[in-house]
């Protein structure tokens, strides 16, 4: 009986239909909490260990490619696996359903925020959440830094990037470019200092044969050909040109929706190191330059992004909604429609490059099993990202603790909430969602208690 059970466990599962895969990707879109690490863990447990749709080795090989790309690696990984299993539409469905539930939730929450944000309960909720988000950003800087900064050279890049954006005010793209150039030459002349790879552990064994196993031949649709490469590139560029061209013809190049499309296309190409890395660039453009929203609103948006499923970069949908609402792109009588349209435009142009990268590069990656390595320029960029995230934490802390400026009052209660949230994250490894929700409840309680002692 045991031998029969073992034999059954070793047998590859039955082929998965497109409909079965659709149901799973839809489910994943609603349960993908916990940031990229949590989302990747959910997919690994379900697709590698339980369903055995793909082997551990093939899963990690795809993940390594997604880690190199700009954009949300978990969403790109879902797109990759969906594409490998069910061709182009499989990838589009997997990646799209990873994002759509979060988009709808954020549109609804953003509407509540803009329409009822001054209501005491809602205001108190965000009062408590803001310092928790600051602690989360500090935690993100620590996590990335502990993995990336393995020697003095990389520490130097991180410190220089912090000074460049904090003290000098250099734009984020320039910092990324400089770090990549330093990494390139460092890899040539000091390779041992820039050979910091990002492995994801050794392949675990014992899950049984997978539908797409280690030695499963690459499906015909996933084989690399220059003809297919050209077709995908042309379609991707056409989608982008039609989208931004239609906005330009309808509203003009300087219109809010058109500028959002152009700005978030650039942001999508700079998302190395995760959402936290590109947030300073989004802040520079959305807050400082275009004035689509304020600094405190940006913090509130990050809080919403932390508590909804989907990639954390979905915070840009909140930025779009608030910007569309604030600028009343369809008039003062259509504020919700303005916000929803802007959020949709921002989401489309933020994620279009991710689909393009997977469908373009996937066939090449499928031909390089066991050969993919992180490059020295990426190592330099990752080090710079740490300094940029530290700058983001400083920015958040300033606005949370001194909301009216350094000459104003110090928010001691916010400091206590942030400190306790930090201890929960660092010392007790509490999850992000419990920390954010608890902090929000403390903020609500404080809103009603503080007037009693005034």
Describe the SSE topology.
Layout lengths: L1 H9 L7 H14 L3 H16 L5 H13 L4 H44 L3 H29 L3 H17 L3 H18 L36 H26 L4 H13 L6 H15 L5 H12 L8 H13 L7 H32 L9 H26 L10 H15 L5 H18 L5
Helix pairs in contact: 2-5, 3-5, 4-5, 4-14, 5-13, 5-14, 6-12, 6-15, 6-16, 6-17, 7-15, 8-15, 9-10, 9-14, 10-11, 10-13, 10-14, 11-15, 12-13, 13-14, 16-17
Kindly describe this structure.
The protein has helices at 2-10, 18-31, 35-50, 56-68, 73-116, 120-148, 152-168, 172-189, 226-251, 256-268, 275-289, 295-306, 315-327, 335-366, 376-401, 412-426, 432-449. The protein is mainly α. It has one domain (19-195, 221-453). The termini are far apart.
Provide a quick synopsis of the model.
This protein is mainly alpha-helical. The chain has helices spanning 2-10, 18-31, 35-50, 56-68, 73-116, 120-148, 152-168, 172-189, 226-251, 256-268, 275-289, 295-306, 315-327, 335-366, 376-401, 412-426, 432-449. It starts with a helix and ends in a 5-residue tail after the last helix.
């Amino acid at each position: 009986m045991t031998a029969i059970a073992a034999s059954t466990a070793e047998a590859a599962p039955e082929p998965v239909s497109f409909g079965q895969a659709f149901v799973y990707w839809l489910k994943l879109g609603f349960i993908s909490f916990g940031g990229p690490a949590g989302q990747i863990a959910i997919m690994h447990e379900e697709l590698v260990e339980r369903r055995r749709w793909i082997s551990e080795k093939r899963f990690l090989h795809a993940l390594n490619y997604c880690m190199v790309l700009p954009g949300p690696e978990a969403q790109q990984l879902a797109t990759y696996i969906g594409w490998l299993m069910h061709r182009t539409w499989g990838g589009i469905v997997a990646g799209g359903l990873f994002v759509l539930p979060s988009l709808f939730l954020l549109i609804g929450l953003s509407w509540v925020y803009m329409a009822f944000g001054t209501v005491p309960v809602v205001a108190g909720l965000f009062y408590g959440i803001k310092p928790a988000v600051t602690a989360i950003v500090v935690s993100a800087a620590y996590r990335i830094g502990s993995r990336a900064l393995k020697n003095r050279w990389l520490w130097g890049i991180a410190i220089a990037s912090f000074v460049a954006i904090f003290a000098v005010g250099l734009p984020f793209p320039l910092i990324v470019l400089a770090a990549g150039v330093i990494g390139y030459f460092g890899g040539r002349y000091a390779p041992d200092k820039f050979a910091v790879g990002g492995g994801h552990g050794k392949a675990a064994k014992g899950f049984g044969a997978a539908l797409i196993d280690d030695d499963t031949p690459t499906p015909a649709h996933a084989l690399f050909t220059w003809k297919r490469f050209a077709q995908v590139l042309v379609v991707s560029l056409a989608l982008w040109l039609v989208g931004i061209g239609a906005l330009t013809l309808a509203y003009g190049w300087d219109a809010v929706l058109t500028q959002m499309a152009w700005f978030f296309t650039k942001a999508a190409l700079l998302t190395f190191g995760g959402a936290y890395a590109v947030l300073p660039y989004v802040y520079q453009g959305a807050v400082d330059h275009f004035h689509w929203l304020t600094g405190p609103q940006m913090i509130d948006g990050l809080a919403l992004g932390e508590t909804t499923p989907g990639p954390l970069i979905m915070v840009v949908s909140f930025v779009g909604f608030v910007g569309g609402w604030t600028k009343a792109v369809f008039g003062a009588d259509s504020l919700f429609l303005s916000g929803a349209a802007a959020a949709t435009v921002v989401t489309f142009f933020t994620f279009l490059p991710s689909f393009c990268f997977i469908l373009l590069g996937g066939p090449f990656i499928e031909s390089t099993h066991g050969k993919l390595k992180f490059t020295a320029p990426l190592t330099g960029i990752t080090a710079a990202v740490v300094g940029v995230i530290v700058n983001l934490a400083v920015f958040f802390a300033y606005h949370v603790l001194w909301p009216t400026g350094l000459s104003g009052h110090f928010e001691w209660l916010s400091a206590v909430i942030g400190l306790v949230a930090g201890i929960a994250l660092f010392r007790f490894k509490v999850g992000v969602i419990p920390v954010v929700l608890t902090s929000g409840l403390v903020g609500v309680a404080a809103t009603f208690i503080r007037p009693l002692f005034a």
